[in-house]
Amino acid sequence: MDFESKYVIQDNRLGKGASANVYKIYDAKMDRYFAGKFISKEYHKKTPKRVIAVINAMDVLRKLDHPNIDKLYEVHEIESYIILVLELLEGESMGPD
After folding, report:
1. Alpha-carbon Rg for the chain in angstroms
2. CB neighbours (10 Å) of residue 67?
3. Nearest to 24, CA basis, from 80, 87, 81
């Protein structure tokens, strides 16, 4: 099933980085929220090392199982983004205020 037909992106952005934005997404079939990390393909295709780093990070996340690390459930690809569907960890932000 493709990303657009499975998930609804919520209005609030949870985080932002140089190459990605993270949004709260909702799966109506499961009645569950996840974190959707939208990684810009444009940003990463400028340098092959960046692409390798993203692939390595996905491989590591798939193997990890720890309560303080968000679990990677799915990976989707759309025109401009690679989307990681991650466990939504609720709580205080670790970023700057």
Report:
1. 13
2. 7
3. 87
Short-list 21, 51, 17, CA closest to 36: 21
Total-model pTM: 0.83
Residues counted in the chain: 97
27-85 pLDDT, tens per residue? 999 999 999 999 988 887 777 787 788 888 888 888 888 888 889 999 998 888 999 99
Higher pLDDT, 52 or 9: 9
In the sheet with 72-77, reading across from the earlier edge strand, the strands are: 7-16, 20-27, 32-40, 81-87, 72-77
Report the distance separating Cα 83 and Cα 43, nearest Å.
14
CA-to-CA separations, 90 to 33, 34, 35, in angstroms, rounded: 10, 10, 10
Q: What is the DSSP string of 37-63?
A: EEEEHHHHHT-HHHHHHHHHHHHHHHH
